[in-house]
Amino acid sequence: MQIKVITPDKHIFDGEISQAKFPGVSGGFEILKGHAPLISTLGRGEVFLNTAKEGKKTIQIDGGVVEVINDNITVLVEKVLA
Predict the structure, then answer these.
(1) Looking at the domain assignment, is residue 45 inside a domain?
(2) Is the C-alpha dihedral spanning 80, 46, 71, 78 positive or negative?
(3) Structural domain total, the chain
(4) In angstroms, rounded to a whole number, what is the distance separating the alpha carbons of residues 6 and 13?
(5) What is the CATH number for 13?
(6) Which of 10, 59, 65, 77 is the most buried (most CB within 10 A)?
(7) Contact at 8 Å (CB) between 51 and 42?
(8) Distance (Å, rounded) from C-alpha 70 to C-alpha 37?
(9) Per residue in 1-20, pLDDT tens?
(10) Is 82 a member of any domain?
(11) Which structural domain range is residue 49 located in?
(12) Strands, DSSP E only, in the chain?
């Protein structure tokens, strides 16, 4: 699967992953290969990615939106937290 994580002013991550976990507003959820199309709002929390090159990666976010279509994931994040 391909994923792009972006904020209004920069790209945070762009690459190949095998798994992603998100902090949904109504609770956490996971995306795996072949997931049905989805659009969801995200709350404050951690995005966990299992990447092909870097292994496990965690990104702290302050809300946003995720879209999944044909194993392509786009994450629009309001702000990345330190």
Answers:
(1) yes
(2) negative
(3) 1
(4) 7
(5) 2.60.15.10
(6) 77
(7) no
(8) 7
(9) 999 999 999 999 999 999 99
(10) no
(11) 2-77
(12) 2-6, 11-24, 27-32, 38-51, 55-69, 72-77
